[in-house]
Amino acid sequence: MCHVIVTCRSMLWTLLSIVVAFAELIAFMSADWLVGRAKPSSSEEVEDRAGGPQEPYRPTLGIYGRCTRIPHMQLSRRDTLCGPYAESFSEIASGFWQATAIFLAMGIMILCTVAFVSVFTMCVQSIMKKSIFNVCGLLQGIAG
Question: Where does the sequence pass through the membrane (predicted)?
């Protein structure tokens, strides 16, 4: 019975480790870190092609990505363009955002490594008399 509980806990920990690593990666890639105020639409843009009210445009900025409105495509459903604004690391918005990018990237690398190692904890639970769970838990705490 004890072995079944340990196996279920390690499977749950493995699954959650993978989910958290992907969630961090998605958050890093997101352009929704700063969301601007809604821009009012002009009278001809108030309704879209389907006849319903169009959502107001909100400019967004992320660590290295942003979303901007494409002026000549305002009547289409895809009137915003999202992508990187920084071609190189030095073009990231500020020194604080550069530091954030470095720390997030290091944390994501650690979390992805732990998620990868956690898959192997199903078979091997200790190496050199050290519990892999304790080491990985410490690494997750550092990455957080």
Answer: 12-31, 96-124
